[in-house]
């Protein structure tokens, strides 16, 4: 009886879970690539992490692989400064002069001002 001896990690991973693990890794890789391509920033980072646990049980060794994809994070919102004025919030500093008709409400369009 001829024994097939494996010396390649990638060959062993290809055999893991009857090939389903390799399918999972390939799917995660496609997910990371797609997320990088669709991200609006010019430079972003994604990570594909492969972890393999080995457990010796008597004369056998069990190999349990895991794959995790970390996708690039969406850029969050920046902070907006507000000042408390008359019990409400204003984007205009209370000690500065209103040059353009003051702040607008959310969803409100800026007013067209007639020249004086």
Short description:
Helices cover 22% and strands 24% of the residues. It is of the alpha+beta class and 116 residues long. It is rod-shaped, with a radius of gyration of 29 Å.
Number of helices: 2
Order of helices and strands: HHEEEE
- Global morphology: rod-shaped
The CA-CA distance between the termini, in Å, is: 100 Å
Write down the Rg. 29 Å
Structure summary, number of beta strands: 4
Q: Main β-sheet, in a few words? A: 2 strands, antiparallel
Q: Spatial order of the strands in the main sheet?
A: 1-2
Report the oligomer: single chain
Roughly what is the average pLDDT, rounded to an integer?
85
Structural class: alpha+beta
State the low-pLDDT regions, or none.
none
> Approximately how much helix is present in the residues?
10-25%
Beta fraction:
15-25%
Report on this model:
The strands form two sheets. The protein has a two-stranded antiparallel sheet. The protein is rod-shaped. The mean pLDDT is 85. With 116 residues, the chain is an alpha+beta fold. The protein contains two helices and four strands, in the order ααββββ. It has a domain at 9-70. Helix content is 22%, strand content 24%. The protein has helices at residues 9-15, 20-38; strands at residues 47-57, 60-70, 83-85, 88-90. Residues 94-116 are annotated as: Disordered. Residues 106-116 have a biased composition (Basic and acidic residues).
């Amino acid at each position: 009886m001829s024994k097939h001896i494996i010396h390649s990690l990638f060959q062993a991973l290809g055999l893991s879970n009857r090939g389903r693990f390799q399918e999972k890794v390939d799917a995660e890789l496609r997910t990371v690539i797609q997320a990088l391509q669709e991200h609006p920033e010019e430079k972003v980072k994604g990570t594909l992490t492969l972890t393999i646990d080995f457990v010796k049980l008597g004369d056998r060794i069990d190999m349990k692989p895991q794959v995790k994809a970390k996708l690039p994070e969406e850029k969050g919102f920046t902070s907006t400064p507000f000042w408390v004025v008359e019990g409400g919030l204003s984007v205009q500093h209370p000690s500065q002069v209103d040059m353009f008709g003051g702040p607008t409400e959310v969803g409100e369009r800026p007013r067209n001002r007639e020249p004086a």
